[in-house]
Amino acid sequence: MSHEATAVLNTPSAAAQARAAKRLDPVSEPRAVRWLLTGIALAFLAFFLVVPLAAVFFEALRKGVGFYLESLADPDAWSAIKLTLTVAVIAVPLNLVFGVCASWAIAKFEFRGKALLTTLIDLPFSVSPVISGLIYVLLFGAQGWLGPWLQAHDVQIIFAVPGIVLATIFVTFPFVARELIPLMQAQGSDEEEAARVLGASGWQIFRRVTLPNVKWGLLYGVILCNARAMGEFGAVSVVSGHIRGQTDTMPLHVEILYNEYNFAAAFAVASVLALLALVTLALKLLAERHLAADLAGARDAVPAHAGPAVTSSNS
Q1: Which residues contact 100 (CB under 8 A, 6 or more apart)?
Q2: Is the full-model pTM beyond 0.90?
Q3: What is the mean pLDDT of residues 56-72?
Q4: Domains of the chain
């Protein structure tokens, strides 16, 4: 059998191609199916997202605005709010520095141990937050490996603010790096190399070339990191000691109030977390829009650089 005949037999018929295109085209689906799928998605979001958020604000204001403000002005609640924001202010910039350095090294350089570093960055995603808290108790607790030395030098990490900061850093440090690595890899290193040839220093290359290209991905990672830092419960619960007015963050304070059957006050503090989550969501949507545009621009730029290189090699 000739090659032409084999090609004809292996080529799908026009009818088969039309049927495949129809299956892949979502517009060709019956209207009832589209409405059903859309309705299921909206019902799912309403049941698991909108209704719980509305219930939080409803319960927070059940006893009136005066009681709501009084609950937030409570010294223990105010201390929990301040501690939560303080921990986020410390943890997020540190993870920002780590994320930028790690992503730049992974995306721009080849070195021994690169695969191991990439794997370790994902470690907090696979480890339970409670386990991460126990790790720090094992290291820095009174009976831990470094506990006697810390006690001898009057340094307290567990059941104090430093332990909360360390636990928060551990559970949040992948977010910035995981957003920047694929973005930097997609953009390549042509622009950095051109700037280096023109005499730019490493800092100038980062500030004027790399950073503008990844700024929205960086913001997106910072937003996710900050949201997780303010809402973290498991790891912080293990290392904090639940000392009211001292080591209780907002999630821990909500649990304490709820266990004491002080539901209105618990939902009042929870509403602050919900408001912060809504603000984070709005910023996340803004960053996602610009990040998608940056990724599309990086993909469109690849053929422009690849074309001349292939032509010159074939000449």
Answers
A1: 176, 180, 218
A2: no
A3: 92
A4: 65-296 (1.10.3720.10)
